[in-house]
Structure to design on (467 residues):
């Protein structure tokens, strides 16, 4: 059965254009756009008409950094693929790229198969995978080629977490050399984990056990040093590099310098670094544990450099690093020892709204909002123009967004499976009204009408920014 939907009268916003247009959707894809109130638009006929008068019509968000069901610190991220993708849809995100994990001593294939099993049949929206590479060896390097053929074209390595995910410089270089050959993109968690472990040990020995010390030991200089080192290793390998969750002024400077030299180096930041700070980590009565993530929140003065980086395109993407742990029973594992607090924040539902607030606050333009949240992550990870834009042939992942609705963010009203909100009590203007995923309504006028299993695995091509 063929199905047709028309979205009438909205302001269509993409990374490149703003136009009052009607959007025709046919069989799950964008079929045509026509300027509103013209004969071409009036010729659109459909089974379903959505009135978007006074609203924005934007591409569904692409969140290229989530961790559903991630095992970490003796527990698991509290959002499943079912709860996490439903919450993403509520927040106007229609595609996530999650991280499958290779455990040391196991193959990439085993890790990827495990994550396919977690996600398949459970997602409300479409999803892809990056691969965390924890054990670089000759077999792993060969497997990277095979994964790219399957549409898993990016590989994450960690300069942090010795004994868990950590790769040394030799392992990083080998993986980068392989990606230089096969077109893969290395994603780097850039913090000097070996040095940080020394500072953690020393802080605990001094009796400094509260959550705020998590931020103090994971120094901005050690993020900058690791970012510099990752850039130089990528340069030696002739490989592209994508640095995840950039949080510090000094790290942004390293990326800007590399890009000024013409290197294929890219950077992502996250809403928590743009809107939260060490003030949150220092909240009394162990409340600061809610804000423990790595890289850590920084003093407020770092925010200006991150916003500037987003405006100058030294940072290209805002993802969430959504990795929620409940305060009760999970974050509390670190009472008396901040190093045992599971690292991660909830945010997959908040990103699009926070960035719209940033438009209103004058940090970015409307088109830049769509660029950093939809189009660029889709291009960076080989999903464009299927995802990330509203254009003929694209998947009909479309959000009707009310730019005037006001909301107060709260754990009482959010849909993430976590018992607190990192943005509790924050007032923002702008709210998702209706969400289509491949033309199918997932959120309909603020009601959930989707279902687990609608979302499908979406293979990706290689990074679309490389020459």
């Amino acid at each position: 059965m063929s199905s047709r939907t028309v979205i009438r009268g909205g302001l269509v916003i993409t990374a490149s254009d703003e136009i009052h247009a009607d959007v025709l959707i046919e069989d799950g894809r964008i079929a045509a756009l026509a300027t509103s109130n013209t004969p071409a638009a009036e010729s659109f006929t459909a089974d379903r008409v959505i009135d978007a008068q006074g609203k924005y019509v934007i591409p569904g968000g692409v969140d290229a950094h989530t961790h559903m069901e991630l095992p970490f610190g003796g527990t698991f991220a509290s959002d499943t693929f079912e709860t996490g993708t439903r919450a993403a849809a509520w927040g106007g995100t229609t595609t996530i790229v999650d991280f499958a994990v290779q455990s040391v001593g196991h193959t990439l294939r085993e890790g990827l198969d495990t994550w396919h099993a977690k996600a398949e049949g459970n997602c409300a929206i479409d999803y892809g995978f990056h691969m965390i590479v924890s054990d670089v060896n000759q077999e792993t390097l060969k497997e990277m080629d095979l994964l790219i053929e399957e549409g898993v074209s990016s590989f994450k390595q960690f300069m942090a977490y010795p004994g868990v995910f950590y790769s040394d410089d030799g392992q990083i270089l080998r993986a980068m050399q392989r990606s230089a050959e096969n077109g893969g993109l290395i994603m780097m968690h850039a913090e000097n984990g070996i040095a940080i472990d020394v500072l953690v040990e020393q802080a605990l020995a001094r009796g400094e056990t509260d959550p705020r010390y998590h931020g103090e030991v994971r120094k901005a200089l050690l993020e900058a040093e690791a970012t510099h080192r990752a850039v130089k290793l990528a340069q030696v390998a002739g490989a592209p590099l994508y640095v995840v969750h950039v949080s510090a002024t000094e790290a942004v400077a390293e990326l800007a310098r590399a890009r000024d030299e013409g290197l294929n180096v890219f950077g992502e930041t996250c809403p928590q670094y743009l809107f939260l700070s060490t003030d949150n980590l220092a909240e009394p009565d162990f409340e600061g544990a809610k804000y423990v993530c790595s890289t850590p929140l920084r003093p407020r003065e770092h925010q200006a450099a991150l916003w500037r980086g987003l405006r100058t395109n030294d940072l290209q993407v805002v993802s969430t690093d959504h990795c929620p742990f409940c305060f009760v029973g999970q974050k509390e594992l670190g009472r008396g020892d901040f190093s045992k607090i599971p690292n991660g924040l909830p945010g997959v539902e908040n990103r699009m709204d926070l960035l719209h607030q940033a438009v209103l606050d004058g940090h970015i333009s409307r088109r830049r909002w769509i660029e950093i949240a939809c189009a660029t992550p889709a291009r960076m990870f080989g999903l464009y123009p299927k995802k990330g834009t509203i254009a003929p042939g694209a998947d009909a992942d479309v959000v009707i967004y009310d730019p005037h609705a006001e909301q107060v963010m709260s754990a009482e009203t959010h849909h993430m499976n976590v018992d607190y909100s990192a943005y509790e009590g924050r007032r923002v203007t702008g709210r998702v009204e209706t969400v289509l995923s491949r033309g199918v309504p997932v959120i309909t006028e603020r009601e959930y009408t989707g279902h687990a299993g609608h979302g499908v695995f979406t293979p990706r091509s290689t990074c679309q920014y490389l020459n």
Summary: The chain has a mean pLDDT of 97. DSSP finds 14 helices and 19 strands in the chain. The longest helix spans residues 220-237. The longest strand covers residues 398-408.
